Amino acid sequence: MTDKAFANLALNPWIIRQCASIGVKTPTPIQANCIPPILKGRDCIGAAKTGSGKTLAFALPIIQKLCEDPYGIFALILTPTRELAYQIADQFAVIGKVMNLRHCVIVGGMDMVTQGQELAKRPHVVVATPGRLSDHLESCNTFNFHKLRFLVVDEADRLLGGHFDEQIKTIFQALPKQRQNLFFSATITDTLEKLKSVTGKDVFFYEAPAEVATVEELEQNYVLCPKDVKDAYLVETIRNYRTSNADGNILVFTDTCKNCQILSMTLNEVGFENVALHAMIKQQQRLAGLARFKSNTVKILLATDVASRGLDIPTVQLVINHNVPKVPKEYIHRVGRTARSGRKGKAITLVTPYDVKLLQAIEAHINTKLTEFKLDDSEVGKIFTQVSVTKGEAYIKLDEQDFYEKKMINKRKKWILEGLDPDEEEEKYLKRVKKSKRKKVKEITEETS
After folding, report:
1. Architecture of 7-207 per CATH?
2. Which pLDDT score is estimated for 1?
3. How many whole angstroms separate alpha carbon 302 and alpha carbon 260?
4. Residue 278: CB partners within 8 Å, gap ≥ 6?
5. Which among 95, 103, 152, 433 is least surrounded, fewest beta carbons within 10 Å?
6. pTM (2 d.p.)
């Protein structure tokens, strides 16, 4: 495409100049295909690989329509994770700076009163996670969506996949029937296909043509390792990569908040400085840690799947899957954090004998065979004891912190709603946790003896 391609999409010259100021000079396929029908008022369902420019595909036409008739609240963008909400808001802020676009981010972990005050000021664009926005709709009447023009559901496969049904229902009841609906995702699911068939209006549907679900610039590998030695293989994988690449940022995915925190503490102790990102960390700390990673102050980020959706961090050159995702599409979202916008990247997945079928399912889904990444087993053997002992100490340190405080508050709320005695249930739960910890410490002691 030539530099005139954005102009061919009927975008205003000042919007094209703003795009150029952030290095976006030609539209990606999803932008070239979706922007014109959105500008014509059609609903849109767009699907393309991660890193293909989906955010600007809906942000640019929304900003153009906003400048023609500026009022608030003009557009609502729903997204599954807090970090992605802030990232989308940043892109709206940069492109809309010239027209003094006002936006606010409504996510959990932040002060609700302050957020309510921001909503009462009627910003042009509201970017929100469903849980916190539904809380505001149910608890206050200082704002409304009666004149809303655009609804965007980003990462639509996840938001419409069942986990957010109650919150989505609350939000949709507050929206006007006459609005433009835009649904975007990296993966097409049965939910989106059904959405396409039941939407009443003339819907524009775009799915990027591709034989493989991951980009060509991504080198995909696996490391075979015994289950009980996986953490040592993780350390050796990072150490091996660092011998040839001292500067590239590394993003490590794992399955649970607890494992993420334990691995983060373990890696810090064995000499790999990192920050952790998971749901049990306070929102301000999550944003601060992510900022340190984005600015290259810290070059390793340990995360659960809260970081697998939409986050665009250009410096990420290696993604490591500490666990094999049970759902192939989650693998696509994870490894999509690298090799974005034409850059090269690498993904390494740690595979135990129990994970072979999961790996085969991923390979079938992405139509690509992963190649083995060879490590020196003798080097892993040298560090195994140190890693295991360090991890055991991390479990003990975590015990002394208030890591489980937030989790317990949420559990007590759930027990109360279920009509159970929260004190009795907490006592039962703590007994189970203590028993599990004793078993874990015993296993670690036996492994290292």
Report:
1. 3-Layer(aba) Sandwich (3.40)
2. 37
3. 6
4. 257, 260, 261, 303, 304, 306
5. 433
6. 0.77
